[in-house]
Amino acid sequence: MTNTTPTVLFICQHNAGRSQLGAALLEHLAGDRFTATSAGLSPAGEVNPAVTATVAELGIDITDRVPRAVTVSDIDQADVVVLMKPGLDLPSTPRGDVLEWSFPNPDAWDAEAVRPLREAVSEKIQTTLLAR
User: Fold this and answer.
1) pTM over 0.90
2) In Å, how far are 8, 12, 51, 73, 111 from 44, measured between CA atoms?
3) What is the pLDDT of residue 3?
4) Taking the chain (132 residues) in consecutive chunks of 10 residues, what is each chunk's mean pLDDT?
5) Residue by residue, what is the 3-state secondary structure of the chain?
6) How far is residue 68 from each of residues 5, 11, 84, 120, 131, measured CA to CA in Å?
7) What is the layout of strands, in order, in the sheet containing 80-83?
8) CA 4 to CA 33: how far, in whole Å?
9) Structure confidence at residue 132 (pLDDT)
10) Residues in Cβ contact with 95 at an 8 Å cutoff, skipping those fewer than 6 apart
């Protein structure tokens, strides 16, 4: 019997907010049940500071993360691809499951505005990914 940990790839436009949030929360909530990663179509220069601050409130440190572009290899290796915005134009067709979630872009938000987003993403992770 093979012990393979499913890889979940969170994708958003800039890999600075929603996808970083999804990956950090999945790591936090799932422990070693999943491998979480994230990427974007046109990466920003840094992770949204409000997102970093709100996950820090949960004891999650993502200060060392840097937004990066999604690659064909990322998509090929993912067992589950989570689009944090529906309809994103990916560089290849995912081989695994594709989940299309719809969350607003927190680009110009402060930490207070991001907290409800954090809770909504956490709830979605628990009811979809962790319920598998």
Assistant:
1) yes
2) 21, 11, 14, 20, 18
3) 59
4) 82 98 98 96 97 98 98 97 96 96 96 98 97 86
5) CCCCCCEEEEEECCCCCHHHHHHHHHHHHHCCCCEEEEEECCCCCCCCHHHHHHHHCCCCCCCCCCCCECCHHHHHHCCEEEECCCCCCCCCCCCCEEEECCCCCCCCCCHHHHHHHHHHHHHHHHHHHCCC
6) 23, 10, 15, 24, 29
7) 35-40, 7-12, 80-83, 97-100
8) 9
9) 81
10) 75, 76, 78
Longest dimension (CA), the chain: 47
Cα torsion 116, 62, 129, 68: sign: positive
For residue 68, give every residue at least 6 positions away whose Cβ sits within 8 Å of its Cβ, in sequence order, or none.
15, 39, 40, 43
Tokens coding 58: 């949960």
Tokens 């995912």, residue located? 94
What distances in angstroms separate CA 91 from CA 32, 61, 69, 70, 130, one per listed residue?
A: 28, 29, 10, 8, 27
Overall size of the chain counted in residues: 132
